[in-house]
Amino acid sequence: MGDSIEKMSNTAPTCTRCGERQSTYFRPYSGERLCPRCFKDTIRGRVEKTIARYNMLEYDSRIAVGVSGGKDSLGLLHILKEIEGRFPKSELIAVSIDEGVKGYRDEALNIAAEACKGLDVEHIVMSFQDLFGVSMDKIAGMDRELSTCAYCGVFRRRALNMAAQRVEADRLATGHNLDDMAQTAMLNILRGDLSRFYMMNPGGSELPGFVRRIKPFCEVPERESTLFAYLSSFRFQELPCPYAEEAMRNDIRGFLNRMEGKRPGTKFIIYRTAIKMTPEEQTSGLVNTCSVCGEPSSGKICRVCQIIEELSR
Ligand code: SF4
Ligand code: ZN
After folding, report:
1. Pocket test for ligand 1, best of 68, 98, 128, 148 (most atoms within 8 A of CB)
2. Atom 2 (ligand 1): residue with closest C-alpha?
3. Nearest by Cα to 308 from 101, 138, 104
4. pLDDT digits 0-9 by tens, 173-232
5. pLDDT, tens digit, for every residue of 92-130?
6. 19: which DSSP letter?
7. Residue ranges around ligand 1 (CB below 6 Å)
8. With left for phi above 0 and alpha for psi between -120 and 50, is residue 265 left, alpha or beta?
9. What is the DSSP string of 154-216?
10. Distance, CA 245 to ligand 1 centroid (Å)?
11. Contact 183/140 with Cβ under 8 angstroms?
């Protein structure tokens, strides 16, 4: 973030928004110089606009927020808590998934629990061990066909949906930021998998067997999410997961950051282009019911049950 943080001195330029306070942040893609208060206001404002643009919420939505303990999901939780306060009939419940990564997820879960307590938000935790009978620590130590993250992604998606169903939510909000969205768009293109573009719709869709997924943070760049967390003074987990190994996503992250440095706004352009490519008619592609667990599936047996079967061999 270094080059965008302005040095505080008597000559620091004033905030272009309020015209009063000294700016501490230069936003390269818009040319704005912002003081901390105005910076935070713009992030809240952007999240509210995103929610309105995609009709993400109703006045009485029961929203499950996926809270990992990282900056994005906690920033989202703080902002949604403010919004919920204005809609007495809406409700917010935090749901966390314990993948079973010792020394990493347990610390994050403590941070998540502490944040929920401070905000007076109900919080539930569901674990891979309880749901699928296996932890990521165990999977990481096994002979296996795929990367750890490939298993983790399939399980987490299912676990979050189950957690949202358990608390009877009608929305499942996740903290995906602009960088995540732009990276996913590039990944889908590089893997030649355009069928996955349906999952990019930030407003989600009503699909049988799924709680509607929404991504209200999708237009907040990662560095601004980090700055928002620091300026809001909440604790969040900074340690990366020890199993993070998605080589292709890391390559794309580096490439996008270099492009953004040279041409500010690149990530927004990629994200907006991807949204234009997202089919209007949404489908999960999961038209069957798994014969083992009864969840939505593309074939006779769902991906989760196939993985459990593979790991038990
Ligand atoms: Fe799971 Fe990979 Fe994320 Fe670790 S980095 S929590 S293994 S998806
Ligand atoms: Zn199944």
Report:
1. 148
2. 149
3. 138
4. 999 999 999 999 999 899 888 777 777 889 998 888 999 999 999 999 999 999 999 999
5. 999 999 999 999 999 999 999 999 999 999 999 999 999
6. S
7. 99, 136, 148-149, 152-153, 241, 243-244
8. left
9. HHHHHHHHHHHHHTT-SEEE----HHHHHHHHHHHHHTT-GGGGGGG-TT----TTSPEEE-T
10. 8
11. no
Mutation test residue for ligand 1: of 128, 180, 241, 245, the one with most atoms within 8 Å of CB: 241
| Cα distance between residue 228 and residue 237, in whole Å | 14
Helix (H, G, I), strand (E, B) or coil at 79: helix
State both tokens at 55: 């009709």
Query: What number of other Cβ atoms are within 10 A of residue 9's Cβ?
Result: 7
Choosing from 109, 132, 142, 149 the residue with most ligand 1 atoms within 8 A of its CB, the one to mutate for a pocket test is 149
How many other CB atoms sit within 10 Å of the CB of residue 255? Answer: 13
Centroid of ligand 2 to alpha carbon of 235 (angstroms): 37
